[in-house]
Amino acid sequence: MLLLVFAALQAPIPRITSAPIADSAASVIATPVPVGVYHLTQTDADRVSRVAAFYSAYNSHDLGASMVFLSTNPTLFDCDYQTHESIRVEGRAAVEAFLRARIADGDHWVVEFYKDAPADVPLRIVVYPVERANGTLARLGAVDGKKRSFNVVLAMDVLPSGQIDTISWATGGPGVAKHLCVP
Q1: What is the distance between the alpha carbons of residues 132 and 143, in angstroms, rounded to a whole number?
Q2: Which structural domain, as residue segments, surrounds residue 69?
Q3: φ, ψ of residue 104 in degrees (nearest 5)
């Protein structure tokens, strides 16, 4: 909810006025989007749908179905919760092996989606992590094996083809997000 609240604070608040409505359709005035209303183009909605379908397949622990959504050369950023380091995995075979290991560990995400990417990254879908659960977090002492505190939003980059090219479950490369990779 932080993103919506933050965006809402920046957007002008709609006001009801007594100004007359213009008769001409050519003089339609753009109205600010009220708080709580979310606008997506069809292309953006399709991208969010692809990312949601990836999470559904991944959370069902279906590696084959998960891989269908990835590009031919994906990159994945994640946390090594044992070393508290951010890691980078590149290439389809390496990402598949990494996801296989995470699925074997019972990895499961609860996320929310936002299309609130920077203007210079128009293919990015912002993913707000709510909860992550897996065996590693349980072994490292996370309550109920779940991480519920994230100090950053995550993202996935979706190519115009609809394939996911980047999965960012942590930010940056090795050593960059040490404080984020704590169970």
Answers
A1: 11
A2: 42-180
A3: -60, -25
Q: Compute the distance between CA of residue 62 and CA of residue 95 in angstroms, rounded to an integer.
A: 14
Place of tokens 């092996």: 97
Using the predicted structure, report yes or no on whether residue 19 has a pLDDT greater than 50: no
Residue 129 lies in a domain: yes
Gyration radius of the chain's alpha carbons: 20
- The CA distance from 75 to 62, in Å, is 19
More reliable by pLDDT, 178 or 71 = 71
Residues 89-104: tens digit of each pLDDT: 999 999 999 999 999 9
- Note the residue count of the chain: 183
Answer whether residue 21 is part of any domain: no
**Cβ neighbour number for residue 97 with a 10 Å cutoff:** 13
In this prediction, residue 83 carries a pLDDT of 87
pLDDT > 60? residue 173: no
